[in-house]
Design goal:
With 160 residues, this protein is of the alpha+beta class. The protein has helices at residues 27-38, 124-135; strands at 17-23, 43-44, 49-51, 56-58, 60-65, 70-76, 78-86, 96-104, 114-118, 140-146. It has one domain (17-150). The chain has 2 helices and 10 strands; from the N terminus they run βαββββββββαβ. A 6-stranded antiparallel beta sheet has the order 2-5-6-9-1-10, with helices on one face. A two-stranded antiparallel sheet has the order 3-4. Strands 7-8 form a two-stranded antiparallel ribbon. A hairpin with a 4-residue loop joins strand 5 and strand 6. It is globular and about 65 Å long.
Length: 160
Amino acid sequence: MAIHKLVLDDVEEDLFTLIAIHCTLEDYRLTYLLNKFLGITLTRRASDLDFQNGELTYSIFEWEDCKQQTNWSLVSNVCKTEDYRQGISDSLFSIQEKTTKNNYLVPEYKTVNYFLKIDNEFNFSKEKYILNSILKIPQVATAYSIESDQLKSKDHLIFS
């Protein structure tokens, strides 16, 4: 019996530009400023990015640029969850302790607040223009590009 082997070496990976943004702004405020400084129109998606059956949700804003056939996505990297535990006490009344836990969309970059994903790999000058425009926003501490092949959790950035 013949053995058939399927070789997947020629599969092309999705090309995208990923920009990490460090700032303390709320997601809607950063979206407004990105729209203003970049001349784009990001809007909130009807439903948030959902992980673990609704336990972890990350806000996401999208824009489809029809002229350049490019999809832009701004997604939060941090999701805060609250947990209530029964505290130890020797009193008559029980005490509940509230703990807040930070969960990250891309755990390798825990200091990043937001990711701007552009689903079309730009040339270096266009990417540099986008980065410089983001860095002109006074509330943004820093922004930089991330190489997609360095990411271990690249599958978390598939939003479709």
